[in-house]
Amino acid sequence: MIMDNSPLIIETDDLQYEEELLRNPFSVKHWQRYIEHQKDASPEKLNKVYERSLLQMPGSYKLWHQYLRLRMQQVKGRCITDPEFESVNNTFERGLVFMHKMPRTFDRALCALPITQHNRIWPLYLKFVMTHPIPETAVRVWRRYLKLCPEDTEDYITYLISIGRLEEAAKKYEWCVNTDSFTSKYGKSKHQLWSELCELISKNPQETSLKNAEAIIRHGLQRYTDQVGMLWNSLAEFYIISALFERARDVFEEGLRSVMTVRDFTQVFDAYAQFEELMLKKRMEEVGVEVDEEEEIDLELRLARYEDLMQRRPLLLNSVMLRQNPHNCLEWQKRVTLYEGKPKMIVATYMEAVKTIDPKQATGKLFSLWVNFAKFYEENNQIVDARIIFQRATEVAYVKVDDLASIPNYCSILTWISNEEEALKLMKRATAPPPHKVAYNDESEPVQRRVYKSLKLWSMYADLEECLGTFKSCKAVYDRIIDLRIATPQIIINYGMFLQENNYFEEAFKAYEKGISLFKWPYVYDIWNTYLTKFLERYMGTKIERARDLFEQCLEKCPPSYARNLYLLYAKMEEDHGLARHAMQVYSRATKAVPPEEKLAIYNIYLQHAQQIYGVTRTREIYQEAIDDLPDEGAREMCLRFSEMERKLGEIDRAREIYAYCSQICDPRITAEFWAKWTDFEVAHGNEDTMKELLRIKRSMQAKYNTQ
């Protein structure tokens, strides 16, 4: 290991160090002290000391590290062909023999160290190769590194783009998006990586072959069908930069025909419109002011193409909505509206709609689409075609019975215009029962077998019979509705009104009674109200006992919230055609039957009619009953009215007693009006003693309510 065979000369100052080393030849500390002492000596002498120390301790990293740094410092600034360089290299080689676990060259370090320590080498290695203009070496180093750590591929892509190796960067992007196990360490989604890949390809077409670029982007379009707007724009941009403008238009058109979301449509359409606008402006700038016929035709063609794109936007957007949900009836109807003025396209759209829509998945009213289709033919005087459409509409497997029931309604109206008899036959056929009994709510059966119980259909049938049919046929329709137990209170009332209009009063009353037996309170209220009103209009007071029985039957189970009008009607009948005593009894019963919030109004009516019939004095009992029955607010009002009546009759003491009684429910803090009226009363009709009594009672009430 010694550099040469020249004799070792030991000076006097070195003796103490040499003696220490003789005693401790394997002490790094003593060797370092000796080296520190020789730092100002000649390089040859200092190197010999290092060589002697390494001869004793060849495994000392510290000594080797200091020695190698010293040797590199000694050759710094010399020519690379100097023999000293070879000597230093040999020293490094000897160091690696003994320090093979800690090599300082990157490749040898990776070969010598266990793989668990490679993470300490690679960052330094990559930083080293990227900071020097050696791209080929750096690429090779990166390729080796990615075999160990593929998750850092994005950093490699960034480096490739920085050195202009875009083709390999695109391949690495493609590997990232196609490898399911790859996860971006920067949190990017696969779609983001696809977007970056497509952007790289579209903006640098010269680095990638045409076929490969289109295949890559289209593969992304197949994978991400809900976020493809930017990918379509990238493919179109690729062709635009490549000066293939017609191919770019084809891509834009294909994108508009295939996107599935409004967001993607907006991105593609805006890019397409911007492209056409820029092409038009560019062409106009090239042509200048003076243009020949051929250039003028070219400009008009470009302008027409741009205008056509703008005009097609609503239709293209509607196509996107229909691709999202081809069973959306409303969007199909909007599409028909967009084709206004183009009969052939309207018919084609309707035909496509009814073929495409699945009734079980339909959104909106499918029957309205069929009806509008038939109406379109009817508006164009094609009645036969309209009837064919209606016939086909009745064969559709609707989800709801009401949807099917709406078809004959419109169809009968249309038929009525041309043939009244045919309209009635159509409704009769629509309401005919199936051979076997079917439950209306049995969804396992088709709606065509359940439609005979549709109230909507029967209501239309009844209306047609009233307008076009005979009395007998119309009555049969109403009876059939009641027999099927699908009638509503309004149907019963309509039936009764129809019979009355034809002077079949008793039949009308029987119809009302049938309705009363079908429904319970509160649904039967309108039937009872109409029945009793019509009965009284018909018979006046000739059948008073029968009318009383009807009222009693009605009021027996009447809820309090519906009782007021019926009791008032009952009392009015007794006043007009019966006995006044009975009328007062009805009013008295009404005060107990109505809800608390309506009692005050009933008592007011009761008092008014009692005063008219029996006079003022007879109302005292009613006032007393009302004061006991009403809540505090109503009782106060009744007391004031009662006392005022007694005052007018000259019964001052009775009026004073009423005031005194009412004061028990009057808090002076919140009922100042009552106390003011009592005070005015005493001022007008009392004396000093009565005024003192008033003040005493007022103080008593103040104390009472303050305590409470």
UniProtKB/TrEMBL annotation:
Q: Where in the cell is it found?
A: Nucleus
> What GO CC terms are in its UniProt record?
post-mRNA release spliceosomal complex; Prp19 complex; U2-type catalytic step 2 spliceosome
- From which source organism is this entry? Homarus americanus
Q: Which InterPro entries match?
A: HAT, HAT_Syf1-like_N, HAT_Syf1_central, HAT_Syf1_CNRKL1_C, Syf1-like, TPR-like_helical_dom_sf
Q: Where is the Pre-mRNA-splicing factor SYF1 central HAT repeats domain positioned along the sequence? A: 154-357
Q: Which gene encodes it?
A: fand-L
An example GO biological process term is: generation of catalytic spliceosome for first transesterification step
Q: What is this protein called?
A: Pre-mRNA-splicing factor SYF1
- Ranges for domain Pre-mRNA-splicing factor Syf1-like N-terminal HAT-repeats come to 13-151
Keywords associated with the record = mRNA processing, mRNA splicing, Nucleus, Repeat, Spliceosome
Is Nucleus among the key words of this record? Answer: yes
